[in-house]
Amino acid sequence: MNQKIVIFLLLSGLVCSCNRVVQGQGQSAGKVYERPPNIILIMADDLGHEAIHCYGGTSYQTPRIDDMAARGVKFNHCYSQPLCTPSRLKIMTGKSNFRNYERWGYLNLNETTFAHILKSQGYKTAIAGKWQLRGDAFAPYKAGFDDYLLWQLTFTSYNERYKNPRVIRNGQLEKYDDGAYGPQVFTDYIKEYMEVNRDEPFFIYYPMVLTHRPYVPTPDSEAYEAFKVSSSGDSKKAVTDTTFFRDQVAYMDRIIGEIIDKTKELGIDKNTLILFTSDNGTGKEVISKMGDESIKGMKGYTSEFGIHVPLIAYWNGTIIPGQINNNLIDFSDFLPTLSEAAAAALPEDFITDGVSFFPQLIGQDFNAREWIFMHYPGKGDDLPMSRSVFNKKLKLYETGEIYDIESDPDEQNSLSEESLSALQKIEIETFRKVIQSMN
Question: What is the domain range of residue 300?
């Protein structure tokens, strides 16, 4: 954190208290590594936590993700930004959007990313999947990656991320016309990268194209072979027809399993930390079930189902299996977490709003968040800019609205401050001080 902010929070009594692992027996604290672990960060596109079976979702089957959770730790309260670019910027740089968000679909290449930090520690670094941050063919290199295979780098071709994709591999354009499936192309690239670099530490960032619309058949769908890719401007049907969303979730689950299986095949699973999350809530056209409750995707909105995303961590032999963690995790926390996992010191002048959750993975003492601050730049008139602070129960917007997000996740009924309990009033006053400090 910024030194002034840390001092302010200490004086205000806002710094989080020390805690232990939430659930699980024993600990792996103090483990000494022969070398820092390989790290694979997988981020789904437009997938709220309600779509994952182990989070209570009942519309889709996600056996490989569920198994990953059963063999690792499932975080119940991870929060992204409501949209793609704000989340990508926050997770890569460890900063709240008020510090470095400039415009939609843009990363200022003067920013230090988690790839820079791990690369400085001797890691081989690669990115595959969705870029969406503009720049030329050198942009991923400037962002700290040694190698890349990306869609939406120097061009945006809405319908060329899935069947017969158009991508750029280390500066070279590749266009597939043989029925190849983009998510499988990216996954095969990642598996090959692991194989080539198995003897040295590597960091792979996989911002997936799944499960973003268009909702189209996958190779496991009966309709795939006959499916024709629409022209880039023909996406109206894809916006409303969610028939194949279920198939896309299933394929996403399948390729995550392929990546885990590859680490075992290569004998590096006990030295590889794998993290799975998502960039924001599910698309608004998708309605999923959690038991008998219907959940409408709220991508773009700051309410619960727009920002509550899955987070699962798996590291065979190091993370105690079957843990359920109920602490708050913010997207700014990923950069310091990866840095600590790699035993990499952050630059002295580096500012991060994140708190490392790496100690929570390995059973050491840690500082748990008591709140999350969100600066949301918005996008257009329908999705206005907002600033808020929240914990697992209460939320305060800078404009004054207060919500009990535990009982009112859709934020339909703003509370008056007079109706709050004494403890809630203290929390709201704390939230106000946080908002005032984040300038």
Answer: 35-368
Provide DSSP, 262-317: HHHHTT-GGGEEEEEEESSPPPTT-EEEETTEEEE--TT-SSHHHHEEEEEEE-TT
Helices and strands counted in the chain (H then E):
13, 18
Rounded Cα distance between 204 and 208, Å, is 12
Q: What residue type is assigned to position 303 of the chain? A: S
- Residue 143 DSSP symbol: T
Number of CB atoms found within 10 A of residue 429's CB: 12
pLDDT (tens digit per residue) in 187-225: 999 999 999 999 999 999 999 999 999 999 999 999 999
Task: Please give the C-alpha separations between residue 242 and each of 130, 207, 236, 297, 298, in angstroms, as whole numbers.
Answer: 21, 22, 12, 12, 15
Q: Is the same domain home to 318 and 288?
A: yes
- DSSP state at residue 333: G
Question: Are the C-beta atoms of residues 69 and 321 closer than 8 Å to each other?
Answer: no
Q: What is the pLDDT of residue 415?
A: 98
Give the CA dihedral 49, 54, 55, 58, nearest 10 degrees: 90
Which residues touch 266 (CB under 8 Å, ≥6 apart)? 194, 195, 198
In sequence order, the 6+-apart residues with CB closer than 8 A to the CB of 7 are: none
Q: What is the pLDDT of residues 338-355, one digit of tens each?
A: 999 999 999 899 999 999
316: tokens are: 């065979």
> Residue 201's domain is classified under what CATH number?
3.40.720.10
Judgement on whether residues 230 and 87 belong to the same structural domain of the protein:
yes
d(CA 116, CA 428): 37
Cβ neighbours, 10 Å, residue 38:
26
Q: Last residue of a domain, which of 368, 396, 412?
A: 368
Amino acid at 377: P
